[in-house]
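G., the chain you wanted modeled:
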Amino acid sequence: MASATNYTYEHFNITFPSPYVAQVEINRPKKLNAFIEQMWTDLGAIFRALSVDPDVRAVILTAAGDRAFSSGLDVQAASQNGVLAQQTEHADPARKALSIRRHILEFQRDISAIEECEKPVIAVMHGISYGLAIDMTVCCDIRICAEDTRFSVREVDIGLAADIGTLTRLPKANVPLSWVKEVCLTARDFDAAEALRVGFVSGVCESKSAALKKALEMATLLASKSPVAVQSTKQILNYSRDHSVADGLNQIALLNSAMLQTKDVEAAMLSGLKKRKPTFAKL
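Predicted structure as tokens:
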């Protein structure tokens, strides 16, 4: 089985609370789990590794501490060393723009690694969940939260448009576009009840611990199913979100022309007939 020793990062705790289930915990609670530059790079590396780890079939994304899932970008650190810092080495605006663009694209790739992870990812949010918290969790397949969660697409309040994914993915998250524009343009807070009402989250629990328990139950259930079936389903759902119905139907036909040859189908059918729990080989 997967080992935490293979996943050692300063600001992330990687554990394996159930067979084939990985839990990624953002671990900078004294700074409200705000992100510094190294954390972006590490997060991308973690999810790219989990994506191909044969001992992982489902992932939970959560955060340490009681106050915040993440307050977003560590603005103070970024203003001293990062894309927000004054860059005197490029006096030419075009060259400076190219440098900033490369920087943004690198950060986008690291956050997109969550969405591109072959395994289903369940986000568990609590407390302050601002800015980058939305960027990360809108990449996840399933989102649940605690009752105390406070959300905000915060970027306009620091003088910029969100550029890591929220403005691109939130309009495709099956929530009302008028609501999306309102929260993105005003940067206002919204609570767990509102997030559930509009469909941004699929469940609200009374506490962080209760939300984690629910996520673990869900992840354990996912991990018990055929990894071929689960990963293929995630792939087609994401593909169909971004393509026409005809394209989606053609894609699943192409995919299943290979995947239907798996032994997992036989194992699942026989287990139903014999009333026993099926076991599936690693991918």
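The CA atoms of residues 124 and 193 lie 15 Å apart.

Shout if anything looks off.
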